[in-house]
Amino acid sequence: MGAAFWPLALVFVGGFPIRQGMLLGLLMAWLTFGIGKRATEPVRQFTPYYVSVLPKWYQLLPDFKLVNGLEEWRSIVDSAKSSNSVLREGIWFTVIQQGEDLELPAVRGTLIYLNQHQQFTSKLRFSEDMVPIRIKREDDLSGALSEYQPVELFMDEYTLGIEVPDWWWRRVRGSCPTPVEEYENPLTGYVKLVLATIPYSEFDLYWQPTAATWHEYFRNIVPKIKRGRDKQREELGWTTKERDDRREPEYIDHRYFEVRHRDI
After folding, report:
1. Which string of DSSP letters, residue by residue, matches the chain?
2. Residue 185's beta-bridge partner residues?
3. CA–CA separation, 163 and 128 (whole Å)
4. What is the pLDDT of residues 21-69, one digit of tens each?
C-alpha cells in the first residue's frame, strides 16, 4: 500500500504524466522508507510539494524593452505555443525531500526534480533560455549587426529575475523600472536583474512538528506561520489571490510573477 500511494497520488492528484508520476512516486516511497528507518521520531515531518512560477510576460517584456510593440509580442507568443519554451511553461519543479533550510540548498538531504527537464538537483538555482527572445548587438562603429545574444529567466533560491547583456542594460537602464538588485558578472558580460523575492516563509507549512497534535498544529502553529508569511508577502510586493475553485489552494501574485504551490 505504502509503495503504491505516491505514484497514484502524483498521477491522479498532482496531474503528473504517468511516466514522471511513477518514477517520482517510487523514489519518494523509497525516501520515505529510508527516513523512517534512520529516524523513527524526527523533530519535524516534511511534506513534498510542487511549485510553478509563471512570469507575466505581457508586463515584464515591455517594461524592460525586450519587445517592440504588439506585433512583435504576438509573433513571440505564436512561436512559443509550438515549443517547450519557458515563455509558455514558466518554471515548474517538485521538492521531493528538503533539508531544514531551503536557503542552504546544498544541505544534506535536499532533492529537487526539475519537471521540464526531467532532471534531479540538490540546489534551487537554475536558469532558462527565454527563446525566442534575443538582443541584437550592433557594431559600435559601423552599426552592422554582429550577433544575437540570449536572455535568461533565473531562479536563485528565493529570488526571481532575468539575466541580460551588461552593455545592453547600461543602454536601456534609464528607461526601465529599477530592479530589486543587480549582480554584474564581468567574466560572462551579463548582469542579473532581481525583479522579485519569494517570501522566505512561503513554504514553511510543508513542515509539521511531529510532537504537536493535529488540534495544536492547526489551532496554534498554522495561524502563526501564516501571519509571518502574509507579513513577508506584503513587504516583498506580493498579494494573495484566491482561485475560482475554492478547493484549490491560494496563490501569490506580483507585478512580474505568479507563484503557485501545493502538497502532493
Report:
1. -HHHHHHHIIIIIS---HHHHHHHHHHHHHHHHHHHHH-SS-SEEE--EEEEEEE-HHHHHHHTT-S-SHHHHHHHHHHHHTS--HHHH-EEEEEEE--S-TTSTTSTT-EEEETTTTEEESSSEEEEEEEEEEEEEE-TTT--EEEEEEEEEEEETTEEEEEEEHHHHHHHGGGSPPPSEEEEETTTTEEEEEEEE--TTTTGGGEEETTS-HHHIIIIIHHHHHHHHHHHHHHTT-EEE--SSTTSPPEEE-SSEEEEEEE-
2. 190
3. 10
4. 566 665 666 565 555 544 445 567 899 999 999 999 989 999 999 998 7
Q: What is the pTM of this model?
A: 0.80
In the chain, which stretches have pLDDT less than 50? 1, 37-40, 104-107, 142
Closest CA to 162 of 134, 187, 192, 132: 192
Q: Do the Cβ atoms of 184 and 221 come closer than 8 Å? A: no
- Evaluated on CA atoms 214, 218, 104, 32, the torsion sign reads positive
C-alpha cell at 155: 531562479
